[in-house]
UniProtKB/TrEMBL annotation:
Signal peptide: none annotated. The record marks 139 as: Important for catalytic activity. InterPro entries: 3-OHacyl-CoA_DH (IPR022694), 3-OHacyl-CoA_DH_NAD-bd (IPR006176), 3HC_DH_C (IPR006108), 6-PGluconate_DH-like_C_sf (IPR008927), 6PGD_dom2 (IPR013328), NAD(P)-bd_dom_sf (IPR036291). Residues 185-280 form the 3-hydroxyacyl-CoA dehydrogenase C-terminal domain. NAD(+) binds at residues 8-13, 31, 91, 96, 118, 142, 272. Pfam families: 3HCDH, 3HCDH_N. The keyword Ion transport does not apply. It comes from Cytobacillus firmus. The keyword Membrane does not apply. Gene3D superfamilies: N-(1-d-carboxylethyl)-l-norvaline Dehydrogenase, domain 2, NAD(P)-binding Rossmann-like Domain. GO terms for molecular function: 3-hydroxybutyryl-CoA dehydrogenase activity; NAD+ binding. Keywords: NAD, Oxidoreductase. Pathway: Lipid metabolism; butanoate metabolism. This is 3-hydroxybutyryl-CoA dehydrogenase.
Amino acid sequence: MDTITVVGSGVMGKGIAYTCAVSGFKVYLNDINQEIIDKAKNDIYSLLEGSLQKGFISEEQYGKAKDRLYFETDLETAAKNADLVIEAVLEKIELKIDIFKKLDRICSPETILATNTSTMSPTEIGAQTSRPDKVVAMHFFNPVHKMKLIEIIRGLETSDDTVRMVKKAGEKLKKETVEVNEFPGFVTSRMNCLIGNEAMNMLMEGVASAEDIDKALKLGLNHPMGPLALADLVGLDTRLRNMEYLYQTLGEKYRPCPLLIKYVKAGRLGKKSGSGFYQYS
């Protein structure tokens, strides 16, 4: 496996593309227009510069990673020679299915198609293609270059060989992997959404401030980041979509906190919009 295409250049797509390039893969990053892809290019180059200056990568790694990165608005050009395609677009099942149908036509029959979903069904997505045995979910975590885990989620038809190849790619990315049988929310998203939603309910009820709720979980339960700060990092609109999906599929305990709904309606989407549970410059 030498060439990886990443579809979608948001926070996760950029992080996946950066990590793949630094790890030795040839990488095509695809998005819908030139303005978006140019911004992604600048962001990834800035991350490479920062990693070089901080000593996380060598001068040689920096140069080779830049040479391995290609930025492309045409999906066919980006994906036609890929060994693995990782879709990293919005958590909307209709959008993902549309992309996978296109990829199924474009890519070689041997190409593995992966979705970076945190909640949605690789079985449902794979069923819309002619290769459900080669469709899998690869759930990366934000920030991709720092987080150590990839959840690998089997669809009903996902083959053992596909899982083996994806695990091998994960090893080259220097990630640990866990294998999960498909169920809404998998492992981490189910737990994370519950904890985050309860933190939001406590904030809404006046139990404690956002700062103190996060501090309590960091210092009292040894979480590396507080749940409200993490929700801001993920994006409150993304978290709300995930909660709505889990509420529909798993029931009442995943009902989104009214405060989360209110913040999203107000455009307070977290770090990316400048304000969420915290304010950002």
